Structure formats: structure tokens, C-alpha cells
UniProtKB/TrEMBL annotation:
It comes from the Bacteria. The keyword Membrane applies. Belongs to the UPF0161 family. Keywords: Cell membrane, Membrane. Its main location: membrane. SMART domains: Haemolytic. Residues 70-88 have a biased composition (Polar residues). It is found in: Cell membrane. Could be involved in insertion of integral membrane proteins into the membrane. It comes from Aeromicrobium panaciterrae. This is Putative membrane protein insertion efficiency factor. Coiled coil: none annotated. It is a peripheral membrane protein.
Length: 88
């Protein structure tokens, strides 16, 4: 299920996204965010994160930098590394 979604997002970014120009308030753009979310978190959680992001994108949104959240395993590795550094 993950790969058809990735294919669709890449097709959208290639064919439809350039027609809109630079209108996105966030960085990365919503389509780039969706693609990265699906690649990082899988189909279900990635689509959920992308849908949340699209719902936040409206004319009154402040916008700005909004990265895809890390996976739980990456957070645990980073926390573990931080504990090792502080323990030394």
C-alpha cells in the first residue's frame, strides 16, 4: 500500500504541483511533507500526518518550518546517545 501512495505523490508533484506555483505557507511544501511522511512512517501513519498538515494549511496559518516527526526508534537512539554523552 505504501508504494502506490508514493507513486501518486510523485506524480502529483510532477504534474499538478507546478501549476500552483509557490503558494505553500510551510517548508517543506505539503506534497513534499506527505511524501517524506509516507516514506518514513509507512502508509497509514504517513497519510494521517499528511492529512493533519493539509488541514493546518489555510490562509490564516502562520506557516514556517514544519518537519516530519522522527520515528520512535530514531528518538530512542538519539536519547540514548545523549545519555551516553552526559554520563561520560
Amino acid at each position: 500500500m505504501k508504494y502506490p501512495i508514493i507513486w501518486f505523490l510523485k506524480a502529483y508533484r510532477f504534474a499538478i504541483s507546478p501549476l500552483y506555483g509557490q503558494v505553500c505557507r510551510y517548508h517543506p511544501t505539503c506534497s513534499a511533507y506527505a511524501l517524506q511522511a509516507v516514506e518514513t512512517h509507512g502508509a497509514i501513519r504517513g497519510v494521517y500526518l499528511a492529512a493533519r498538515r493539509v488541514m493546518r494549511c489555510h490562509p490564516w496559518a502562520a506557516g514556517g518550518y514544519d518537519p516530519v516527526p522522527q520515528t520512535h526508534s530514531l528518538k530512542n537512539v538519539n536519547q540514548h546517545r545523549g545519555e551516553q554523552c552526559s554520563a561520560s
